[in-house]
Amino acid sequence: MTNRIKELRARDNLTQMDLARKVGVRRETIVFLEKGKYNPSLKLAYDIARVFGMKIEEVFVFDSN
Amino acid sequence: MLERSNIVLEIHNIILERSNKTREIMKSNLRTILIVVVAVLVVATFALWIANSDISFDFSSVLMMVIPVVILVNAVLLIRKRMSDARDQMPAEDELTKMIRLRSGNTSFQLSLFLWLVIGSVEDRVEVEGHTIIGAGILGMAIIFALSWMYHRYIRRSHD
Predict the structure, then answer these.
(1) What whole-number distance in Å separates Cα of residue B25 and Cα of residue A44?
(2) Cα–Cα distance between A39 and A17 in angstroms, integer?
(3) A60 has which bridge partners?
């Protein structure tokens, strides 16, 4: 699974810390997400998408390969 | 009518979210207090043990000194981390840290079983007192947990 968190964060001028605070997780979790080392729970994916005002599938892209 | 019920639902959600956050903060504070209490108990027991025994520097005594020192260093690091987290308004735990802790516990439990198996098999062949072997086993378990935590936190490539 890939995601556009870094790109969307840059668009909205948010730091990793800002995003982490908004969705109630630690900054390291955002780092892991951006590096693609961690797939979030459905709730966290929903919260992140909501921060960017987008749908989950617009932020997280499932790659079947 | 629908708008009013939406507003009521929104207010309910905000209250629920706030009470959840308060509960999380309270849980985190309780854990910090527990760490402090355990650290104080360890220091007190260690001080009592030092006061009531003739200090010698043989293997078993050094081992018995290392265990409380490891616990204390761990407690100090944990408290410092929690304080900096509180200052940065970061939660002490989230879904990733919980998962890493769970996986570390799982790995270290399995490895610890092997450790005790090895200790059990070499126990009769070495001339060491029983309490020293138990101390070494406990210290070994702590080291295994620390190493497996580091593996899951820094080395493992994906957490999904």
Answers:
(1) 19
(2) 19
(3) A3
Contact A24 B94 (CB under 8 A): yes
User: Rounded to whole angstroms, how far apart are CA atoms B157 and B152?
Assistant: 8
Model pLDDT, residue B21? 65
Distance separating alpha carbons of residues A9 and A13, to the nearest angstrom: 6
Task: Give the gap in angstroms from C-alpha A38 to the nearest C-alpha of chain B.
Answer: 5
pLDDT tens for chain A, 65 residues long, are 889 999 999 999 999 999 999 999 999 999 999 998 888 999 999 999 999 999 999 999 887 76
d(CA B40, CA B75) in angstroms, rounded, equals 10
Q: Is the CB of residue B160 less than 8 Å away from at least one CB of chain A?
A: yes
Radius of gyration of chain A (CA): 11
DSSP state of B159: B
Q: What tokens does A28 get?
A: 């390291």
**Which pLDDT value is given to residue B157?**
66
Q: Is residue B58 scored above 80 in pLDDT?
A: no
* CA–centroid distance for A17 within its chain: 12
Torsion angle of alpha carbons A48, A53, A56, A58, nearest 10°?
Answer: -120
Mean pLDDT of B78-99: 85
- Pinpoint the alpha helices (H) of A1-65: 5-11, 16-23, 27-34, 42-51, 56-59
How far apart are the C-alpha atoms of B24 and B78, rounded to whole Å?
A: 17
Among all residues of chain A, which has the CA nearest to that of B18?
A: A24
